[in-house]
Amino acid sequence: MTSREINRKDYEKLSEWASEYEKVKEREAKRPLLVKVFYSEEYRMLAIKNILFAVMWLFIGGAFALFLRSQAGLTSSGIPVVVAPQYYFQSMTNHVMDMIFGSVFSTVFAVSFYMIPALNGSRLVKWPKIANAGLWIAVLGLFMMNLGGVKNQYLFTFLNPLQASPTWYIGYAIMVVGEWMEMISVLGTSFLGRIPGRLIPTSVGFIVMDMIMMALANISVFLDTMWSLMSPIGGLGINIFGVPNAEIWKGLFWFADHPLVYFAPYTLTGAIIAIAPLYAKRPVYSVRFTRWLIPVLFVLGASVYVHHLVDDPWPLILRDIFAQTSTALIGIPFAALWMLFFITLGDPRKLKWDAGLAFIFAAAVWNIIGGIQAEPTQPTPSVDPTVHNTLWLPSHFHIMLALYSVGGLLGVLYVVGPELWGRKWYSEKLGWIHFWGWQGGMGLLVTAFAIAGFYGAIRREVAWPAFYEVYYQMAMIGGWLAGFATIVFAYNLILTLLYGEKIKETDLPMWAVQVIALERYGMRREGYNEDEMPLALPADGMIRQVVQTEGSSGGTTRVGIVEGSNGSVKSLRAEPKVDANNEGLKGTSWKPDKV
Hints:
By secondary structure, the chain is an alpha+beta fold. 64% of the residues lie in helices and 6% in strands. The chain has a four-stranded antiparallel sheet, covered by helices on one side. A hairpin with a 4-residue loop joins strand 2 and strand 3 (568-578). The radius of gyration is 25 Å and the shape is globular. One of its GO terms (biological process) is respiratory electron transport chain.
């Protein structure tokens, strides 16, 4: 394969970003730790803060879940053993809010703020003040929702005259504003590192699409929340919008906010597209096809809401034609995604397995299982209203949320985490214990729910026929097993941050360098023009200062850089190393030559 030299203009851009990043690090070094907690413009610190909040909400939301599972597993009569019925339903609401908007959303923002600046080579965050403020505003809003008291069982009724606490509506609106601010910063960060004429990395494309979809979806949710607050059900005595109507709340909320269920999967997809080739040691099977999945998933993901409105008086075109069709069709691009994933990885026996790959691989399998479970029922108007009121549905969304989304994002953290906090994982064994505990615990829970739902167990109840109690007992055991696995994860994370073996620090994370090298190699094989590929990153992860240039060869100019303590000037040329059968990229060798 012919050698290719890094484009002079591209390297100068990397050098320019490096100079800006050095200023960021200088300002960051002057801030006390307490100030950094509230405000940081360094992309890794911003990601770490989101991760720590995600872990915090994972424990808070998990505690509410264990209240539920223990109460349900110890009695079928509703007699308070762990919590009284009103607190049972309050815990149910808070569990969902904390897990989705607290743990999952925070992890998505952490992955976004870390992966985008690393993959585009800028290491810069656009509008860091907005990003930090958005984080704290979202946290404040979520805390207000948690403090709503027993009225918060309203989320699972959608029936008048039940109502939530005013703090629930106010907190929800505040949280949406905070999310918008973080999304704006993520989008700005993606464009900050974009060079005109060049495609952004495929992984970044998925994240950008995800942020746009969710930002648009939150518009109707915000309006809906404000309508509720200003109506008689708002509890403030400000009755601007007249008589409360549960259909308005349910309609506006689910019509546009259903994309929240794809907020984690779409960013996770971007991360998986980046990570899978690292284990396969070759590019994704088809870069072009993968990139076409982005607009397809955007259109279908933004319109899948029928299984929340199927029995409501919405216009036919919205309810039974467009949304119902979208619900049925969205399984196709996901099937194509996992086909690319498994083809790219190849023979599992030849892979180097660790907890990160295991979580990601399991997430793919669980998403397929969850899709098979949902597709025959949710797009079907004659079946869906009944199925939605049984434990079959909690089985489905725990597969999609806990085992697919959360499990997959945990896998991503296991892979990119070491270069994020600069230390190897303290214990690989604890990582495997976490994996098997989480998979076994949540797997038992979703299986119990699915069987009970098949036999007609009604969800959103605090008492049920004793026939179903064995399934609630299985779910309780599974929940506690997953809870202990989470404690193991947190313990391993703390030990890693304190005592983990330090890794060699480079300007750019080596995983990002390898991801871009593999993607460019794959795009070159598929006939992409060299000038439209994502920006190439230095193979050693180090960005040197451009000081001079020399000559040109084949239309590409060599770049002079400062190398070494003696100030010697060298140029760079890149040589992708391919195996003997031309089946996969073995690495990228950037060889400096003295000028």
